[in-house]
Write a structure and sequence with these properties.
12 strands; Rossmann fold; 6-stranded parallel β-sheet; alpha/beta; about 20% strand
Length: about 270
Amino acid sequence: MKIIVTGGGGFIGRATMEAAVSAGHQATSFDRAHGQDILTSDLSGWENADAVIHLAGVLGTSELFDTPELAVNVNVNGTLRVLKACEQYGLAYTGITMPQVFPSVYTATKICATRLASAWHLAKGVPVSHVRAYNAYGAGQAHGEGHPQKIIPTFATEAWAGRPIPIWGDGTQGVDLIDADSLGRMLVAATGIGDDITVDGGTGRAWTVNEVANYVLAITGSSAGIEYLPMRDGETPTDIVATGDGWDRLTYDPGVSEKHLMKTLSDTIEWYQV
């Protein structure tokens, strides 16, 4: 297939591009880094493609309460524009969604985008797949001013700097950690289905946030410990762990071994060493 990856220059986008090429597809990045914008750019060049994996969007949780209009415009209207292009040019659509967790601006925009994709599948016949992404990690995931505070970059960066690891809440909330390469592979595999399926982009292995923090402390050798902070705007304590939705429809076993998980996680933590 000829696959366009919107946001192909981003963290998950790069992994998805590599996964597509490894699977024998032709992948083209459509990204703001190359002057391409899903809200304003001409999409007529997509007519020769077969599918779009739509990853371009505005990320964040508490941060997006300051710019809700931007988040709605990019994440909802941008998705709508991509779906209309898929309808016009006969392309399959794969979107990235998220578990149904705490209400936030980002959550609201992703629910809306997902429902729009389902609507275009039902009413317009666009082949649609969704991948429900959990906590992706990997080398190169952005951290710092202007970027959302993702769990592994935040914990690793603080620990390597000798500062306490910040945990918002009591740390008993559950997370599902998946390396970006495995998530990218799921996104590519789901693209070939198209019947409005949702595939869990996680491992099914539950961690508490406290367990993740203690693992980071162990890998970094930091003695700075943990600092517990109030939950941020738009967050409530939640357990979010994949249950394997859609895995039986993939053409490969999506299971991530404990050995692979721990190796990629430790390699990622070490990547952030200052």
